[in-house]
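Researcher: Going back to the complex we discussed earlier. I've cleaned up the inputs and rechecked each line, so this should be the final set. Can you rerun the prediction on the complete assembly and write out the structure?
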Amino acid sequence: MSDRLEQGLDAMRGQMDTRVMSYLSSCVHCGICADACLFYTETGAARYTPIYKVEPLRKLWKREYTFWGKLASSMGLVKPMTESDLSDWEELVYDGCTMCSRCSMVCPVGIDIAYMIRKVKEGLAAAGYSPEGLVEAGKRALEIGSPMGVTLKTLQATIRVQEKETGIPIPLDVEGADYMCLFSSGEIAGFPEFIGSLAKIFKATGVSWTISSEYFEATNTGVQLGNSRLAATLVERVVSAAEKLKAKNVISPECGHAYTTIRWDAPNIIGRPLPFKVVHIMELLDELRRDGRLKTEGIAGEKLSYHDPCNAGRRGGVLDQPRNLLDMVAPDFVELPETGAMNWCCGGGGGVSSNERADALRLKVFDAKKRQLDAVQPQGLVTACSNCRHMLEDGLEEHDMHDIELLGITELIADHLVEETG
Amino acid sequence: MFAQLVDGIFWDIALWVFAIGVVWNILSIFRVGNKPDYSEPRGSAVAGAVATNLRRFMPRSEMVSRTRLQVIAGYLFHLGLFALLFFAAPHVLFIEAQTGLGWTSMPYWAFIIAAQLSFTGLLLLWVHRVMHPVTRLLSDMDDHMASILTFIVMLTGCMALVEAFEGLRVLHRFTVEILMVYFPFSRLMHAFMFIPSRAFTGAWFGRRGVKA
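Model: Rerun complete. Updated structure for the full complex:
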């Protein structure tokens, strides 16, 4: 057995817990999960069936953790696992799964398949079977602090532009501010107006906030890769930055993956509770709305719809808040069919959009989103995730759907803030 | 002689293997344990576990049109099997003789309907398993063995009830004993494990305030 295979199998053995074993013991191979997965529905390829993607973990479990498997192994009656049991799954797991969890919502025996795919990633990453694009993003995250190579200088330049455009100072390294805000690199590079929108909203609502120059990246490539050590290092950087600024709250930006990671996964990645509270920007804005501090005027005239980012919505529980906010400014709001916790993924989550090798496939599976949009034909599509927004841009471009405007919800709210008088 | 073995020592062995096998299997899974969840919950894990256990008895409305065959066949098979197992007159009498607990059995016509529904469901599921590219890819020997053994047990049971012939009763009981020995070491364990499986997922999503 080669070293890399042994490392991969060891990493998966380390992931075996009661939850995984219960799932593997209860699967009846009914195949219903396939019909919930956009990679299967849009390609028709059976190998994209979600539960099939955890086959390396199932094989290991069957051989080493079940009665017949142990008996047969001891008698030499089963073939040992080989490198192809891992290498053949790399494309399925990293290119053909966005970890969107739609499959986890439909399994009749209740298996959270995405939870197990995350475990398989640990084995593949440990064995060195990860896509180059993600591995390189991981290196940049570790060395530069951003998977896209966004440096502090880039952020500072972006802040200066936004300060100039909004006329509002953006606080950097303010100790004792109520909220420390994180950003995804995709946001800073692609949608810098998000930062200006925050400045406008927080000024109007009197929220004290800051950005840490020490660490401002919200995404965690370690989680996308399945590399727990890298994931823990990146989480510790957020913790350290927040502790230095004595921040009691950390804002996760418009990025579904970033939210699930820092809000739900981070404490378990580092093995202790976080010393601060994490809120998604939608949660905070909705709280300000409830308290009567966030006031808007005017309405968006177009027919708008909302794309739920899978990680913020289905896996993160931020489902009602964006709808409450849209209710303030979008009277002609229309839900996509199969929405909320059953929304179809855009195709770019789980690190797929950072994996150039998967570009053609992610654009192909965007057909699921296109069907949803065709059904209601909105003039504008709002979302709360910069990664989804990038993917939606690519998908709409690919399908010549130029008449649909893409909007970030924070910017939409900022554009309708009650103007200050006097 | 064979009938005495089937009604005596074979039954005892099958019962013990089944009971010990199921308990051993469940204990071996639960002794591994789960890591604690340090994230601050938004909702109740317990309520999520209970709700998901109940909710997953019904398919999601979004999925019905795409999975109609599996859903309908699954209901036919499981409901029919449940009725046969616990309400067929000979089973009720047998359970009463073994445990002292008795209840009203279903009439003969209901037995026939339950058997037909159950057979239809099982056959549809098996044909789907063999014919559909997804289930064909996923299925292994265990899936087919479980389907075939269940089919044989149901077939011999129906034959035994329709024809009041002692040999058929013994044959049915013998096939049940084979199934009981096979059960704990097979995918048939889903009959028990679906409960913790749904509970884990429900609890996880419940903490996050999501109805799974």
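Model: Worth noting: The domain at 2-23+66-207 of chain B is CATH 1.20.950.20 (Fumarate Reductase Cytochrome B subunit).
Researcher: Good, that matches what I expected from the previous run.
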